[in-house]
Queue: 2 jobs
Job 1
Amino acid sequence: KAGVTQTPRYLIKTRGQQVTLSCSPISGHRSVSWYQQTPGQGLQFLFEYFSETQRNKGNFPGRFSGRQFSNSRSEMNVSTLELGDSALYLCASSLGTAENTIYFGEGSWLTVV
Amino acid sequence: AQSVSQHNHHVILSEAASLELGCNYSYGGTVNLFWYVQYPGQHLQLLLKYFSGDPLVKGIKGFEAEFIKSKFSFNLRKPSVQWSDTAEYFCAVKGGGSYIPTFGRGTSLIVHP
């Protein structure tokens, strides 16, 4: 069974640009959540989607947005990139019930210059 | 809001030493507890989890964790570490029917051969 797949794995963007990251969940998983990982802050929750609806949202500015498609695949977008957005962006999937475990992808490394 | 504290940010051990990483959380109700590990260059992997039942949970690679409800703790232990245990370890807590776990900031473990 394939794991969570994220693309692209590495990317470099310039300040002010926007970026879109993609995530394909484990087959059968309907929940996709996104995290930002940085050395000093650990894992910060961005948002979670379930059945194409945003179900939970973290404390990030509106420049960070996401969506989920009918096949459960998800994308997140960051507009007007800032240097501080440089981070590892992790996607995780689960069946979507409260009594379950989330499984992570390898992440997308974003560097903003 | 629930919070998770990992008091040891950096731990350095020699091979064969015993390991205990602390994790405390603030949520007072029913909780689901997790430890994830991130080996260098790899994605976050589930090490072990506690949902209910025996508070002593055994995970992969010889790790175990004990849920002590009265202390709001879920400490990770391994009797004898190996060089290959060098990694970042994250404690996570889901409470009260929440779909999303809250993560601690992580503990970096370095094991010297």
Job 2
Amino acid sequence: GESVGLHLPTLSVQEGDNSIINCAYSNSASDYFIWYKQESGKGPQFIIDIRSNMDKRQGQRVTVLLNKTVKHLSLQIAATQPGDSAVYFCAEIMDTGRRALTFGSGTRLQVQP
Amino acid sequence: DAGVTQSPTHLIKTRGQQVTLRCSPISGHKSVSWYQQVLGQGPQFIFQYYEKEERGRGNFPDRFSARQFPNYSSELNVNALLLGDSALYLCASSSVVNNNEQFFGPGTRLTVL
């Protein structure tokens, strides 16, 4: 399959370690944030979301943290597995009717066995 | 249940030609959005349609157009193709226009020679 992000920043972790992927978003008016996972040859897959009135949300093995003061979003993956290897994008939605997603530039996560 | 489907999977065109890409949303979803993903970058919003009407447009030239049919499927048309139009074109569906959760298809890889 094709490579989604040939020139993206890369985070390399050992299997079983925790991973932290960071994202700086652009618009202080954004009211909703989402992390997507994109594997080679596939479309983005929803991982977890968070509203702007929250600062933390937990899912299964994943946690998203939101710092509105510095417009920063992070995704924490616990006990990283080889299947977590992919490109990860943060996306934001402004409070407009159309709810279009604005994506960040992405981070490639490589999990070493 | 079938997810979002897109056709064709891959397409090769030459400069100046026209192309039509197709998308079928998840059954019951009435909103379709189109995104362009250039290699190494996050997806960029092109259009959103809901109930056959355009509800939003990104910063793309008039060479890009789209429509939505009564069965909620959608077509994206690009005229006078340029080399820079080479990208992965993603379709996403959501149940209604203001629903934050968007589900992506696998995309159509367009190469312009």
